[in-house]
Write a sequence for this structure.
């Protein structure tokens, strides 16, 4: 047995040593790839902490995943090259396979491309309230394929990124302030100056209005049954809706307390009587009843 092993070693020593060297080198490359990918993960995490105000949190997992797979792919190519595999042909084969897969999955890849553009250009962030087409909701998650939103009534909205990217996006949160328009109608017989004075007092007393731009009051339009006055004021996004609801109630109460009238649309109906015709062809007056049946 010992003689056989000695003879085998003598005949294949160079092959065994070469294979062992390649295996050890491959293990070293795998270990290095793992350590490098871990280092990249830590580096990205630390960078995201320092750039928290400039870097979207939803972009962090994508960067980590991309860096990790890139390191492992490079390591795999190096290992194949160590064992004498023609990596050039493999890369060409993978490219052809990727092209075929890309043509087969073009819709899916369009979602990925849209997701990358959304993450790079960042028209909205997690927590923003947005609208695209007829869909409105708060952004809860952005990934490469889809965006998850929550509607105002608590519904779960799961939307492919390509639909969002191909639509006009309205971000209600981005500018951190919004203008509200409170419209109230007064009677044509009421004093316009009195109505505007009520709105000015309300605007001056509302602490949630931003000082810039300053609130405005104006005659908006002359309606069919009322003179429409408008109060415009800016509030922070967080205070917008509560301020809007409170002001609608307050405007009605104070307009009425000032002795002004909030009219409602009225329609005047004029009925004209026409002569009737009897069964025998005789024309009846409007006061005569024509028999029916």
């Amino acid at each position: 047995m010992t003689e056989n092993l000695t003879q085998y070693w003598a005949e294949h020593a160079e092959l065994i040593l070469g294979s062992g060297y390649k295996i050890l080198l491959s293990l070293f490359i795998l270990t290095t790839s793992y350590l490098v990918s871990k280092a990249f993960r830590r580096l990205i995490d630390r960078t995201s902490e320092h750039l928290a105000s400039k870097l979207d949190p939803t972009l962090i997992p994508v960067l980590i995943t991309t860096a990790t797979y890139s390191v492992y792919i490079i390591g795999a190519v190096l290992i194949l090259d160590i064992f004498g595999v023609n990596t050039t042909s493999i890369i060409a084969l993978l490219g052809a396979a990727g092209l075929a897969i890309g043509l087969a999955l073009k819709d899916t890849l369009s979602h990925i491309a849209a997701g990358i553009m959304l993450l790079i250009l960042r028209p909205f962030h997690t927590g923003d309230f947005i609208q695209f087409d007829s869909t409105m909701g708060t952004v809860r998650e952005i990934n490469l394929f889809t965006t998850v939103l929550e509607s105002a009534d608590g519904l779960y909205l799961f939307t492919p990124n390509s639909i969002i990217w191909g639509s006009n996006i309205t971000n209600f949160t981005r500018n951190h302030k919004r203008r509200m328009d409170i419209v109230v109608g007064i009677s044509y017989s009421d004093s316009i100056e009195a109505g505007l004075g009520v709105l000015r007092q309300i605007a001056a007393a509302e602490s949630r209005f931003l000082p810039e731009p300053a609130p405005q009051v104006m005659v908006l339009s002359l309606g069919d049954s009322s003179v429409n006055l408008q109060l415009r004021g800016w509030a922070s996004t967080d205070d917008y809706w509560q301020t809007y609801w409170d002001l609608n109630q307050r405007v009605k109460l104070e307009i009425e307390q000032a002795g002004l009238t909030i009219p409602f649309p009225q329609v005047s109906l004029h009925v004209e009587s026409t002569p009737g015709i009897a069964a025998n062809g005789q024309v009846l007056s409007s006061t005569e009843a024509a028999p029916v049946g």
